[in-house]
Each structure stands twice: as C-alpha cells, then as structure tokens.
Amino acid sequence: MSRAIQHLLIGGLIIMTTGVSTATTASGNDLELTIVNPKTLYDPTPNGYSTAVIAPRGARVAYISGQGGQDSTGALSPDFAVQVRQAYANLRAALNALGARPDQVAKLTVFVVDHDMSKLEVLTSSVKGMFGEALPAQTLVPVPKLAIDPMLFEVEATVILD
Question: What is the pTM of this model?
Fold first, then answer.
C-alpha cells in the first residue's frame, strides 16, 4: 500500500471517529501513540485492549517475537496463568532491552492453546497489569499447539520506538 493511501486511510479513521470516539494519548512525551475507541463500536477496554492505535509520523517500529512462558532456564509451568504471567515478564524484559516502555506498544498478538472463555480473566488481568490505561490494539488467536508442546501461551508485540 502506498504511503499516500496509508495517510488517507489513517486520516479517514481520524475524521470518521472525531466526536464519536474516546481517543487518549498513551505517553506524555514526544512519542505519543493515539488510542482510538469509537463509541459506535463495542468498548474493548474492559477486556484489555483498544480498537486502534495511531503511531506518530516518522516513528521507528520494532517487532518483538513471540514470548512464551519459559523462565530464564527454559522451564515451563504446566499452569496457564503462570505461563501468561511469565510471558508478560519476558515481554517486559524484551522492551527493556530495546529501551522501550509498555506505553510504546501499539499492537499485541496473543496465541492461546485450546482457548476457552475461562482463560479470558487471566489474559485481561495480565494485560491490564502491564499496560494500565494505555491498552494496545490486540488480537487473540486460538491455536491447537505452539512451537514447543508444553507451551500454552505466546505474545508478540509491535513497538513504536521514536
């Protein structure tokens, strides 16, 4: 997609949502992600994500590979909640290595083995614990298995650096 079309699409999103969305800024410095949750759509914030996030013009983007629930020795707990908490701790370590903060994460993709509704509370509390009010856009993908058989959860991130 050409850069001009991308700008038109983003501009269209801003125009379409003006007056009908809840837009907040994820950071108070020069690096500001704009979070957009149109009032004409379902409010996703109780579930730990935002509808859309707009990155500032000229920002550099980093992509963090899927982080699973392995501890520093590579061990995996058989417990889903323990793996989710560890995966978010691993994501925070990756952000730290980039010199980035959670409020610079624009998009998460999470993969859940054998997803069911009972897992949503664990997922929601973990993402809200890490991101607070600056909830990134997020997609949950149910999967039958991940790269390593005992893995039950994986999270990858798109980060706006500057």
Answer: 0.77
